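User: I'm writing a short report section on ligand binding and want a predicted complex to refer to. Could you take this sequence and alpha-D-galactopyranose and write out the structure as tokens? A short remark afterwards would be nice.
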Amino acid sequence: MVDTTIVCTQFEQHYGYSPEIVVRAPGRVNLIGDHTDYNDGFVLPIAIDRTTYIAARPRDDQQVRVVAVDIDDQDAFGLDHIAYSTNHPWSNYVRGVVKEILSEQHHIGGAELLITSDVPRGAGLSSSAALEVAVGYTFVKLYNLEMAHTSLALLAQRAENTFVGVQCGVMDQLISVLGHDGHAVRIDCRDLSNYIVPLYQNTSIVVCNSNMERMLTNSAYNQRREECAEAVRRFKTWYPDIVALRDITPAMFDQHAEALPETVRARARHVVSENARVLRSTTALEQHDVMTFGALMNESHTSLRNDYEVSIPELDILVTSAQQVSGCYGARLTGAGFGGCIVSVVDTNAVESFRQSVAEAYQKATGRDTTIYICRATDGVNQVKG
Ligand code: GLA
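Assistant: Sure. The structure tokens for the complex follow:
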């Protein structure tokens, strides 16, 4: 866990005086509803106790200075000319967000920033979204900007889409602002309406990292998006008014599935069924029915593996090993896939045996170590000092 006092000390050591504020923004794990957000669908993530912190102070000029203590690197740029940085790739999340704030005509000046984070990078736990949201919120607080939390999430997503060049949906940024202690958040990615649902008592959210780098994620992700767009074009011939796969019910899908090319059919089947699973799992959570919730998680993994084809053997091994542990209600890959993590809902009394069994099985089957995190659901972005 990052300690606010340490962040302040690091800031002082670097800049020679105290920060005016410290803000935090969490990473996330999605319990169910993957590859639905960019189809205007439903998701059910939690914000996790892995967090990005930024200590900051305004400047009188138009300069932004930023230090990333964890990787011992720093960068500086002027507000009048914000270009993509090839030397400091991490800084593009900062630059992109600042550029978006300016393009919305908000009045800001320069700043001194210090960033530190314990969200594992490249693990699929949304370290990028946590950074973008933290940067955005830092400027909101330093310059008293009028910006709703959901607008901040959309701004952060735009920065990633247009400046960093990753065509992500909006789930990661939204949960980083909407997270709620002890709760999952059901989000409708069409109108951004959302509500919180308390998590099960006596169960733990356990995340296992495959420690497989997510290499082709960007191109494969964009390809999936394109296949969904193609599915929408096809469905429009039967239902001209639809705008996204969200509008296709399971019955509508069944009626026309045969007429779709095989790949498009499989992709659409995943999205349509996954949306239905999010709705059913939210009800299962509300009704304290953990067995049904777990079964839906397992179904989700099968769908992501067979129909959406975003799993890899290492994730399948983790999921199968997890599902075999007594006391594990359900397990699935979480996030974009192609590496990264799986998420399981586990009886708290069984967590230790779960850890051991899964780690052993994974090591035996792949020769690799898994890193296991027990995640607590936390609040979304906020200011912790100043
Ligand atoms: C990544 C993207 C999200 C979402 C997930 C899959 O995490 O950033 O927008 O599409 O993949 O659910």
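A remark for your report: Residues 34-35, 37-38, 168-169, 171-172, 335-336 surround alpha-D-galactopyranose (CB under 6 Å). The mean pLDDT is 97.
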